[in-house]
């Protein structure tokens, strides 16, 4: 069975997230986007865990169904949305005379396993403070707790290149996955690439060949679901999905943000408006020419530092990937209005009604059908997206980049 999964999301109990981020809203937006499996996020938070137990029922395959289905926000094609128990943990600790800060995704097949994990973690840190709790424990020890809770509980390192909070990040990471997880490294079978990198960038580092490249939205609002996602053709079960991630049999690859749009792609300083390529940063010795402080070294630079290849060399068994641009951003560019403007949102709703869901429109709908329904400009935009004909303005130091499909001023002539 073919299905799409977004396995890194949050609830309204996480900091800097939408107050409307609940199970019902996640379900509604999963149908709008075309996502079959969504992570619950935040299962370590006591109140959210209680809500999960009250509102979800096991489907018998390791996933969960929503007891009471909400009314649809838009006229989207009905799909069978399931939830996968998940959370994100922030580990901050000292190792090798350096403070390490890294984030990790945890997955569990049932409430009993979650309860075991939560009981252990509650003795280490305050799980009520944040949906993504901060724990003063090594990532290796977190992994030990997870694998001890169940043979079907898993840890996947999150957004592995992010400068501040990741396994390989420039600010507080390691130079290898093994250096982080030590004697338990064999339990790691996949890594999350994050918004600021794609599988091709990761395949410049041969040490990552053994890991499946997974991508997720890390959504802090339901509208951001599916900005990255995973594609499967296997049994739509918890065991089937993770077996595909372990073996790459049945794992079809990922839907990717253009990494330039990620907010840590380039080096730079947000306050100074400085954005540098790695070679330019090197010429400045990693120092901002404006304020004379160290630059925030971005993902591209960090990948280059650890790379042992000049060109990506994916293993023969590795799955592929394709890029997407969130549909509201495409509409926003065409209309010359903000993503959250009424006109953009109305057009988005109309397109969902015509084509069923966002992924179908972006990836599968024939360009001629798009032209007939929406006109030549939308047809041209989707054609350029599918052919990777884009104009990027890269992100840096916490500032998201922008991806355009039309040259500046081009739409005035259409």
TrEMBL record:
InterPro entries: Pol/histidinol_Pase-like (IPR016195). It comes from the Bacteria. It comes from Amoebophilus asiaticus (strain 5a2). Coiled coil: none annotated. This is DNA helicase UvrD.
């Amino acid at each position: 069975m073919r299905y799409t999964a977004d396995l890194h999301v949050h609830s309204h109990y996480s900091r800097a997230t939408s107050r409307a981020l609940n199970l019902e809203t996640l379900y509604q937006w999963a149908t709008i986007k075309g996502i079959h499996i969504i992570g619950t996020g935040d299962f370590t938070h006591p109140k959210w865990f209680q809500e999960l137990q009250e509102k979800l029922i096991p489907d018998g395959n390791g996933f969960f169904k929503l007891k009471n289905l909400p009314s649809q926000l838009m006229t989207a094609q009905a799909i069978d949305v399931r939830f996968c128990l998940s959370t994100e943990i922030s580990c901050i600790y000292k190792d090798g005379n350096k403070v390490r800060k890294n984030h990790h995704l945890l997955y569990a097949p049932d409430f009993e396993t979650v309860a075991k994990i939560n009981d252990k973690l509650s003795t280490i840190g305050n799980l009520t403070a944040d949906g993504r709790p901060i724990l003063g424990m090594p990532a290796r020890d977190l992994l030990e707790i997870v694998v001890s809770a169940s043979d079907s509980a898993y840890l996947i390192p999150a957004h592995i290149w992010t400068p501040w909070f990741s396994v390989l990040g420039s600010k507080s990471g390691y130079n290898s996955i093994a250096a982080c997880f030590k004697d338990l490294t064999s339990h790691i079978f996949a890594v999350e690439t994050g918004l600021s990198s794609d599988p091709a960038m990761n395949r410049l580092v041969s040490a990552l060949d053994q890991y499946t490249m997974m991508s997720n939205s890390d959504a802090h609002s339901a509208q951001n679901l599916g900005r990255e996602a995973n594609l499967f053709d296997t049994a739509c079960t918890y065991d089937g999905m993770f077996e595909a991630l372990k073996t790459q049999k049945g794992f079809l690859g990922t839907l990717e943000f253009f990494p330039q749009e990620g907010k840590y792609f380039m080096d730079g300083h947000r306050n100074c408006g400085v954005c540098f390529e790695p070679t330019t940063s090197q010429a400045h010795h990693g120092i901002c020419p404006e304020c004379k402080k160290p630059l925030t070294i971005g993902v591209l630079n960090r990948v280059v530092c650890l790379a042992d290849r000049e060109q990506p060399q994916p293993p023969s068994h590795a799955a592929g990937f394709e890029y997407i641009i969130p549909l509201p951003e495409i509409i926003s560019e065409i209309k010359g209005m903000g993503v959250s403007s009424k006109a953009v949102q109305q057009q988005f709703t109309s397109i969902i009604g015509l084509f069923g869901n966002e992924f179908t429109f972006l990836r599968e709908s024939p360009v001629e059908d798009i032209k007939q329904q929406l006109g030549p400009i939308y047809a041209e935009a989707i054609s350029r997206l599918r052919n990777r004909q884009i104009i990027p303005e890269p992100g840096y130091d916490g500032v998201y980049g922008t991806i355009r499909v039309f040259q500046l001023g081009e739409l005035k002539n259409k």
